[in-house]
Amino acid sequence: MKKTVLVTGGSRGIGKSIVESLARKNYNIVFTYNTSENAANAIKENLNSCGYSVENYKIDFKKSENISELIKFVLKKYEKIDVLINNAAISQVKLFTEITKQDWENMMDVNINSVFYLTQEVVRNMIKNKKGCIINISSVWGMVGASCEVHYSVAKAGMDALTKSLAKELGPSGIRVNSIAPGIIDTDMNKDLNEEELKEIQNDIPLGRLGTPEDISKCVEWLINDKYMTGQIISPNGGWII
């Protein structure tokens, strides 16, 4: 029976690459989006036209009450969730002293609170089936922190802590939990960095280039198929952070 994968934030960047690569591996895919409706529909239609099983679902993760409806949608369509990939995120570059209460709450709602509530809902189904795989797309900033991105770094560090704790708790139920903590990846997430800043970062990376979304989706594929890796923070960053 085909595995069903739920990917959050699947309309752009890393999420899009994950959706496309897993669809081509013949998984059932449901991916979420919020504002990028045209892009999300184009991805779905393109993959469906190739014979792949892909659905999309619009959700605002700042509102936790929407999560139960998302789970109902997936289970009605495919009856189970074998793999959860928590990828949806927002970023913001701002001095610590200028981060507002609203900035902080938005960051936490999308980048960690939604991960908690969604994972909690999905895990109930996985425990019942005695198997599952959860992959959290974290960030290198959750490991080492980033100047002018304190709230983002805190949320990503929380995601890594969730990963380690859940791996211990869910291992006896046959559920593996891991984080992928990318370095600088060539996506819209880095739109606040100018060309000179990106060049400086690239020069600091031993492998001499920024990462690509495909670098991350390949890691996701490996973690889904692996049988013994759990509780780990894996950081594809070209040797930038060692």
Overview of this protein structure:
It is built from eight helices and seven strands; from the N terminus they run E-H-E-H-E-H-E-H-E-H-H-E-H-H-E. The chain is an alpha/beta fold. Strands 3-2-1-4-5-6-7 form a seven-stranded parallel sheet, sandwiched between helices. Strand 1 (4-7), helix 1 (13-24) and strand 2 form a beta-alpha-beta unit. It is globular, with a radius of gyration of 17 Å. It starts with a strand and ends in an 8-residue tail after the last strand.
Provide a quick synopsis of the model.
The chain has helices at residues 13-24, 37-49, 67-78, 101-129, 140-144, 150-170, 195-204, 213-225, and strands at residues 4-7, 28-33, 54-58, 83-86, 132-137, 175-180, 233-234. It is α/β, with parallel strands linked by helices and 242 residues long. A 7-stranded parallel sheet has the order 3-2-1-4-5-6-7, with helices on both faces.
- What is the makeup of the main sheet? 7 strands, parallel
**Number of extended strands:** 7
Structural class: alpha/beta
Please give the count of helices: 8
Computed CA radius of gyration, to the nearest angstrom: 17 Å
Topology of helices and strands:
Elements lengths: L3 E4 L5 H12 L3 E6 L3 H13 L4 E5 L8 H12 L4 E4 L14 H29 L2 E6 L2 H5 L5 H21 L4 E6 L14 H10 L8 H13 L7 E2 L8
Parallel strand pairs: 1-2, 1-4, 2-3, 4-5, 5-6, 6-7
Helix pairs in contact: 1-8, 4-6
